[in-house]
Design a protein that fits this description.
8-stranded antiparallel sheet; binds fe (ii) ion; single chain; 5 helices; 14 strands; 3-stranded mixed sheet
Length: 232
């Protein structure tokens, strides 16, 4: 469990969207940057390609991005895992062909004041579902599928969420419309806070304690860039 939950909660808010966070030109710069970066993870099982933005790439765009982010979430520090080569990273590009399942991005350092998670849409197709429910353990993928529970990855795997939010069945219509890739019984007790419909250059901001996942509506593929932040 995170140690400073009271302090973390003081910085929490409902998720929100900044439309046109990036200009068209900046979107192109991000897309170009994505092409140039080396691949960090190519997971064929989950059909996802991940690239970290090493701070050795495109310094100008780094200062633009950080300045813009400051304007939205004020005082923050980036809190992303380093690249394979040990370089600092501004965040993670994810090109995915399959929906990402239910999880939380709370990190693994319980002394940190975890803050906002940001998701920048670099394609026009994609949806992200943010739940009202929150979690203050480490980064975890929540599942009831034995295969998923025994698989290994960056996140811990667990079904402990089912003990935390009550036993209420998840809304059938919402499940059908957005979450067909999730077993409806894995969503017991969950309530949707927001559906973010991706638009090129828009930014979604949510708390790192918010449970979230992709919707199953992916046309071909989507490209997004996420940063994790903390407070001091
Ligand atoms: Fe996430």
């Amino acid at each position: 469990m995170h140690k400073f939950i009271d302090k973390i909660k003081r910085f929490e808010s409902k998720p929100f969207i900044i439309e046109n966070f990036l200009t068209k030109e900046e979107v192109s710069l991000f897309q170009k940057l994505y092409e140039e970066l080396p691949i960090e993870v190519n997971n064929r099982r989950q059909k996802i390609i991940k690239k970290k933005w090493s701070d050795e790439y495109n310094k100008d765009l780094q200062s633009t991005y950080i300045k813009k982010l400051k304007g939205v979430i004020s005082d923050f520090q980036l809190d992303n895992p380093k690249t394979i080569n040990g370089a600092k990273s501004l965040g993670l590009f994810q090109e995915s062909y399959m929906p990402v399942t239910l999880h939380v991005d709370t990190g693994f350092d319980f002394k940190k004041l975890i803050y906002k998670q940001t998701l920048l849409a670099l394609s026009d197709t994609g949806e992200t579902i943010i739940f009202k429910n929150r979690f203050y353990g480490c980064s975890t993928t929540f599942s009831i599928d034995p295969k998923e529970l025994s698989s290994k990855g960056y996140n811990r795997r667990s079904s402990e969420h089912l003990k935390l939010y009550g036993n209420k069945d998840f809304n059938k219509e919402i499940h059908e419309k957005y979450l067909g890739h999730e077993d409806i019984n894995n969503l017991k007790g969950l309530e949707v806070e927001m559906v973010f419909k991706w638009k090129l250059g828009d930014l979604l901001v949510f708390d790192r304690s918010n449970l979230h996942c992709s919707s199953n509506n992916i046309k071909n593929k989507k490209l997004g860039f996420t940063s994790s932040t903390k407070r001091l």
